Amino acid sequence: MGRIVILRIGHRPERDQRVTTHVGLTARALGAQGMYLAADDKGVVESITDVVSRWGGTFFIEDKVSWKRCIADWKAAGGKVVHLTMYGINLPDAIGGIREVDGDLLVIVGAEKVPGEIYGLADFNVAVTNQPHSEISSLAIFLDQFAEGRELNLEFKDAHIIVHPCPLGKRTEER
Amino acid sequence: MGRIVILRIGHRPERDQRVTTHVGLTARALGAQGMYLAADDKGVVESITDVVSRWGGTFFIEDKVSWKRCIADWKAAGGKVVHLTMYGINLPDAIGGIREVDGDLLVIVGAEKVPGEIYGLADFNVAVTNQPHSEISSLAIFLDQFAEGRELNLEFKDAHIIVHPCPLGKRTEER
Questions:
Q1: Rounded Cα distance, B90 and B102, in Å
Q2: Contacts of B95 in chain A (CB under 8 A)
Q3: A84 is in an annotated binding site
Q4: Which of A56, A110, B72, B131 is deepest in the core (most CB within 10 A)?
Q5: pLDDT at res. A94
């Protein structure tokens, strides 16, 4: 399996800080390598960097990215582009073709409005149901189905906090 | 498969309105029957009611619910309770047992802090990875895995807007 990196577009700092942070943390927890943010938002960068430093792994976050340049560079390097949109092909009909991609995947996660150009630039426009819900859910289900659930058992290197699964209450370890 | 209803707790109107709306819309899109909100928030109720009226189906939303009463009533009626928490048993190890439940499921989705009592009241404390990410992602993956992906093809009755899946651009129908 190649690398998976998220490109978050349409983020507005005054409105989307929490949702974009959830997008980034979801990406990290489910095995993506990092997130490019096409906006200037130190708050999101700090929240995610803080989680990585305490919970481990090597997830990166980079803001002030030009989405056009990011997509162009990704494609020039041979990577493919998935755009999550409720208007796309429904996941059950799309996932097989995406799993066959030999190479890295850039997964575009938009906020409310997305520039029309994105549809044409993407190799796959994919819907996680054609209903309105949440870009966070869409990303989560996409990543889970792409990895066929294996990413749910990831371990993160150099973690300072570890949760030990427990049927009742909380069991954490600090290192 | 029995009914699935969400109980959203720990919601604070000034902070959680968007996230709780995403929780409700995710629940609806992925086949849950409704959401109880243990808070007073007309804004969330209106957003979700508006989506249901345009996009169809019978999803209900009810605010000002007492979580204690809600859980007690659910159990008294023979239903089981799943609590999504990063401290619980990881989903791959829990989902089999939950699929065997014969009856209705109440799925508790907390915000940042959850009363300790909830862990003891739940029949299953379930983590979607033991990493910090998003209650929206956790609910999405839980519902998707519970229904083994079949809910991604749900159709909603009496919809006034329908999206027709499309490899490029947008194709919607108004009725």
A1: 21
A2: none
A3: yes
A4: B131
A5: 98
Q: Considering chain B, what is the average pLDDT of its residues?
A: 97
CA distance A2 to chain B (A): 21
Mean pLDDT for each consecutive 10-residue tract of chain A (175 residues)? 94 94 98 98 98 98 98 98 98 97 96 92 98 98 97 97 96 96
Predicted-complex ipTM score: 0.97
User: Between the CA of residue A33 and those of A21, A59, A141, B98, B112, what are the distances in Å?
Assistant: 15, 5, 17, 31, 25
Interchain proximity A169–B140, CB inside 8 Å: no
Answer whether A170 sits within 8 Å of B87, measured CB to CB.
yes
Nearest-angstrom CA–CA distance, A58 and A32 = 10
Question: Are residues B152 and A128, on separate chains, in Cβ contact within 8 Å?
Answer: yes
**Identity of the residue numbered A133:** H
Range of the domain at A100: 4-174
Residues in A touching B128 (Cβ below 8 Å): 152
Is A114 within any annotated ligand binding site?
yes
* Segment B126-151, tens digit of pLDDT: 999 999 999 999 999 999 999 999 99
Mean pLDDT to the nearest integer, B101-119: 94
CATH code, domain with A24: 3.40.1280.10
Contact B152/A163, CB-based, under 8 Å?
no
Overall domain count for chain A: 1
* Token output for B135: 């209650």
Q: How many Cβ atoms sit within 10 Å of the Cβ of residue A116?
A: 9
Question: Å from A65 to nearest chain B CA?
Answer: 23
| Closest in A30, A90, A134 to B22, CB measured | A134
SS3 state of residue B54: helix
Round to whole Å and give the CA distance between B120 and B47: 32
Residue of B nearest to A18 (CA): B19
Integer Cα distance of B38 and A166 in angstroms: 26
- The pLDDT, as a whole number, for residue B14 is 86
